[in-house]
Structure formats: C-alpha cells, structure tokens
Amino acid sequence: MHAEPELFHYTLGLADDALVLGQRLCEWCSNAPFLEEDLALANVALDFMGRARMLYSHAATLEGAGRDEDALAYLRDCREYRNLLIMELPRGDFAFSTARQFLVDAFNLPFLEDLCRSRDPELAGIAGKALKESRYHYRRSRDWVLRLGDGTAESHRRLQRAFDEIWGYTHELFRAGEAEQRLVAAGFAPDRPALRARWEALVVPVLAEATLRRPEDAWSVDGGREGTHTEHLGHLLSELQFMQRAYPGLQW
Amino acid sequence: MNDSNASPEELLRRFQARIDAEQRIEPKDWMPEAYRRTLVRQISQHAHSEVIGMQPEGNWILRAPSLRRKAVLLAKVQDEGGHGLYLYSATETLGVSREELVEALHEGRAKYASIFNYPTLTWADIGAIGWLVDGAAIVNQISLQRTSYGPYARGMVRICKEESFHQRQGYEVILTLARGSAEQKAMAQDALDRWWWPSLMMFGPHDAESAHSAQSMTWKIKRQSNDELRQKFVDQTVPQAEFAGLVIPDPQLLWNAERGHYDFGPIDWEEFNRVVAGNGMCNRDRIAHHRRAHEEGEWVREAVRAHEERKRERAAQDAA
Ligand SMILES: [Fe+2]
Ligand SMILES: [Fe+2]
User: Fold this and answer.
1) Prediction ipTM score
2) What sign does the dihedral B180-B186-B189-B191 (CA atoms) show?
3) CATH level 3 topology of A4-246
C-alpha cells in the first residue's frame, strides 16, 4: 500500500484541527476574565500553534510538492480545510470555550496515546510531544468545568447550556472516512470509534462531579473532514489569511 | 533598624542615608509616605502600560502573516501580560491591591503609556512597536534596575531580559519588510513615520519641566533624567534605521561630533498633551476594551470565589 497521499491528507486534517482551535484560543488574548487566565490561555494557544506547525511541516514533506507550512495554512480556502467542526465554532463566552476545550482535551488524551504508536515515526514523535501538553490541558480544563459547574447558579447555567450546544459536534470526533480506516488498518492512525469509551471515562464522571447533566445524544452535525463547514470558518480564514491574500507571494 | 522612638526627622535622615549608600529599600522598611505614593503611582502606571499594551499588538495576532510570526507575537503579548503581573505584585508590597488599581484605570484616575493610544494599522506597526516602543522601554528599564525600591528593581531585571528579546524580534520584522518588496518597504517607512515621535515622548517631559523628577532622583527612584535616557535611545536607534535603509522623520537629526551624540528636532509637546488628555485615536477604545473584558469576566471570578468557598466549607465539615 502506498500510504503517502492518504497520510498527507490525514496529517493535514490534524494540522487544520490544531490551527483552527489555536486561532480561536488566540481570540481570548486581552479578553480573559483575569490576567493570570489570559496568560494561561495564551499558553494553550501556543501549544496548539506549535502542534499545527509541526503537522503542516510534516504534511508538506509527505506531499513533496514544494508547499510549506504557510502555503498550507494560508492558501487553502474553506472547502479545502479539513478540520472538525467543533474546532471552528466561535469562542462564545468563557463557559463555551471551557466546554469545548474540555471535550477536545479529553479526546486528545486517548487519541494522542494511540497516535504515539503510529507506524509513521514522525507522527508518533509529534504525538508524544503533544500528549504531554494535552495532559496538562486536560487537568486545567477539568478544573474549570468543576469550578464553573459547581460555582454560582449563573456559572452552572452558562456551562450547562454550553455543553448542550456543543454536544452534537462531539460525534464527529469518533468518525473516520474510508481513507482514514485504511490508515487505521495499516497501523498509521488511531481507530476513532474505539476511542469513545476512553473519552467518556474522562468526561462523564467530571460532568457528574460538576453537578452537570450529560447532554442527550439527540443530534449530531458533521462534514468538516470533507470540507463542508459551518459559516463561521470562512470568517476565521478571512482574518487568518488576510496578509497572504492581500500581499501574495511575499516573505514576512 | 526600625527604632520606634526615633523622631520623624531622624527616620527620614536614616532613610536618605541608606539611599545614598545605594542600599535597597524593602517592603517592611520605614519609608516616607511621599516615597511610597510616588512608587505606587509609577509602578502602577508601568503595570497598566504593560497590560494596555497587549491590545494594540493583540490586534494583529489573528492576522499575523505567517505561523511563525503569529506564535512569536502571541508569546510576546503574553510576556507583556506577565510583566503586568509582576508589577501589580510589586505595588501589592506597598499595600495597594490590583483591584484598586484596575478600578482607578477604568475611572480614568490612573495613567498608562500614552503611546498605546495610537492605532496599529498595518503589520509593520507590530515591527515598529517591538523595535521602537520596546526599545525605548528597555533604555528606561535598564536604568530602573538600579532603582532604590527592592521589589521594583528586581522586577526590572527579570523584565529587561524579555524586553531585549522583543526589541530584536521587532527589529527583525522591520528589517524583513525593509528588504522586501517596494510595498513592504513603504509599509515599514510609514510605521517608522508614525511611531518615531511618540517613542521619543515615552521618556516624558524635558528635565526642566518634569514635575516629579528632582525628588525622584534624590530618592533614586529615577536614576537618570528623561533627557539623558531619550538621548541614549536616539543614539542607539539611528544607526539601526540607517542599517535598514529607513529614514527617521526628523530633518534636524544630525550627528554632533562635539557632543558625541545625535542632535534632534523639537518634540511636539502639544501633540503629547493632546493625546494624554484623551484626544488620541484609541484612548476610549483601550479603556472600553479593558472594562468590557473585566465586566464579562465578573461571573467567572464570582464562580471561582463561590467554588473556593464551598471547598473550604466541605473541608471544614470533613475535619469536624
Ligand atoms: Fe513589557
Ligand atoms: Fe516588551
């Protein structure tokens, strides 16, 4: 099996996930509820940016077409972006960003643990580094879920509403298209559907401890991996890519 | 020694003797009330400047032109927030809480560096801020590493290391633009044109007109005068502009071999006073932004307090 084109698209999707979530986290800069939290959010954003850069560089190598990390990040439009929808949703209030971050961090732990065993040593190496960060991210976002869930009536209400609004976007974390399934079979990629039980074990008890209700699995939206996005992504990209689009082909 | 029987005159004499002997004043030491007030004013103004300064630079994080520049800029803005934190802690050693200082900022009673009332309109402004504004800040802060109040001096040592990193990164952005396309070079020149004079104003009024300077020099809160520091900044920055092939917007700028310094033209203090008085492009935006973030965060801070309270109650119950 010649894995390179499929591995390229797979890696690109992971890079898009990291960049798009990182960009959303950057939006908190100078907007956090207090200064210490502003700095902490910037740390997490920097971790995702670092991850995105490593993954884009690796994707560029796999593609071998002369594109670099910036060409991949700045010169693809909405339909070519492959991130999962949960990453692109607007930052919302602090409760929404907390709920999203917690659910994604809880997913990243089992996902990255398995990706550490990828047959692609480069991906395995990136996963190893990212896993250390994600352990810390998960502890942090879990603490916030506990504080806000078991805080005031208002914080509880806001956080519950956030989980209710975002829950339907979590199902996409556990789906894999045919190409990805071939990479799973060949030992390159973690098996997403099989990660759900480990994710739930990191999520459900924390919701209970935070006196929150586990939202119903009544609805789900997907399409990110196929380039079908919410209307929010185009605006995120127009800001992200402004300089490269307005002044093409220059070094900065 | 804090001899409680000593007369106020004697305490003041001993205080000044320690300063004259280059000894550091520490939080628990006796100090004149006016010394304490001057420090609170200066350090809190410095802290607010770091924090408000996050806004003009934060304005370009989402639009940074490459992933590397984005990460460097985000880390830089994060450093500035960290500087704000150290400095707020330094004011806490003088008995003033961060909450009080933030309230004063929101009510317009506290100042911050007026340069942050100018807008960042292009990517080149990010380079110009790092190069010129951080550059000017370092000149000032290196001198403050020897300030007489211990916690402030130690804070400066820590901060200076990061500022010089920022200055180099900013200059590197400008240099890249200056060596790029005609459009990029014009962008860099335009940024220099807009940021040069406000950077010179950062050092404050001329020594003769400076309201607080003389006393601050005696107390060694300030170690060098505004004009000395400004001259130092000009002398180190002119060759950098020349190396980049950019023109400093001052027709009177000229090397003076006799003085061993650059002569430069008059500063437009009317412009400075106009901006300080609230007529800058961004004065209201900066405060409104800070106030909005603070207000939007109120429910979060309340939740943190409530959660801590509940944890304490539970721990007390478990202990009983
Ligand atoms: Fe700073
Ligand atoms: Fe700085």
Assistant:
1) 0.97
2) negative
3) Ferritin (1.20.1260)
